[in-house]
Structures are given as structure tokens and as C-alpha cells.
Amino acid sequence: MIDLQLLISYGAQIHTVEKGEALFWEGAACQYYFQVHSGQFKWVNIGEDGKEFIQRIIEPTQCIGELPLFDGGTYAASAFAIGRSEVLRLPIEQFQEMMFEHPELQAKFLKRLAGMVRFKFFMNKEIAFDDPEKLILTVFAYFKNHRMYIDEKDDLVLLTRQQIADLTGLRVETVIRVIRNLNDKNIVRIEDRKIYLDNLEGYE
């Protein structure tokens, strides 16, 4: 997202977050700009019943929790490290100074925020139809077309079944059943418990 050396020149420091540890909590005040340096984070809302709904999985070079930096609000979701991870952490005052002195960065953030809104519209539309198989197929096609969570070399899905469930709002048992059915139809291929997208014609 933002060049590593540029962030460091404004005072960013590397902060380590252990597996399962929260980087920030929904509703908390924003004090830093965070950019993932290594590892992965899940950006989630948690219901009263403890069920997680993953908004996005954030990977190296991507920023996380940036909305309050622009609207002055609190964090809209919580962030947890999927494994031991590192983030670059830049205090909000230095972030604002950097944005003022490097206005070209604004276009990057506008494009990212627009992509997030578009993805939200897409997910809301698909979830509303209440067809688990169509939802999963359409989501896989979207991820493939937008180079999200899919290995470009062999079309391997880089998500666990639980993560697919948390992203779509489905029960993990439903995800397992649907993927097994798609394997039987030769639309996806299951190999060593990994999911490969062999034939998404009609959904891309």
C-alpha cells in the first residue's frame, strides 16, 4: 500500500502481534495507521452469540482499520492475527502529516475504499438470495477475478472452510457440504483437503 521506507521515514515502527491477539477492537478510538508487514489478520465483526463475520482477510503490504483515519470515527470491526504477524504502526498525527506532504497517496486510498464498498454491495446482494451453492460459486469467481485469496498459479483457494463460512455468513457444515457437492460435479477439486477451482464457467 505505502512504501516501507516512506513509512519508516515518518516514524513507523514494527509491532509484533501473536496468533489470536487483537490488534484493535470494534468501537475503540483510532490512534495509528496499521500496515501488515508479515503474516495475516482477519477483520471481523463479532455477534452477541460470539459468531464471527469476516469483513476481509488482510495480507502483507495491505493496510487495516483505515476508516477512522478519514472519518474520525471508531473502529468498525475488530482485527485479530491469524498467525504470528507484524504490522507497521504509524501514529495518526504523523500519518496525517505524510498524507498532506504526499497527496498522491490519496488516490491509492480512494481506490481501496471504493473496492471495499463494491465488495460489500456484492456480498450483500449474493447473501440475500439464500442459495448457498450459488453464493459460494459466485464468491469464488469474484475472488479469482479480483485476485483475492486465490493462488494464481493453480487456482488454489487460500482460505479454510471456516474462513469461507465466516466471510459468507454460512455455517461451516453448510460450506463443507456445498464444496463436497461441487467436487462431485467437477466444478471444484478437493485434493489433500485443499480446494482447487477447476471449472467456474458461467460464474466468472
UniProtKB/TrEMBL annotation:
InterPro entries given in the database record: cNMP-bd_dom, cNMP-bd_dom_sf, Env_Response_Regulators, HTH_CRP, RmlC-like_jellyroll, WH-like_DNA-bd_sf, WH_DNA-bd_sf
GO terms assigned for molecular function: DNA binding; DNA-binding transcription factor activity
Protein name: Crp/Fnr family transcriptional regulator
Every HTH crp-type domain range: 130-201
Organism, scientific name: Sandaracinomonas limnophila
Source species, domain of life: Bacteria
Pfam families: cNMP_binding, HTH_Crp_2
Domain Cyclic nucleotide-binding intervals: 1-116
Keyword annotations: DNA-binding, Transcription, Transcription regulation
Keyword Transmembrane appears in the UniProt entry: no
One Gene Ontology cellular component annotation held by this UniProt entry: cytosol
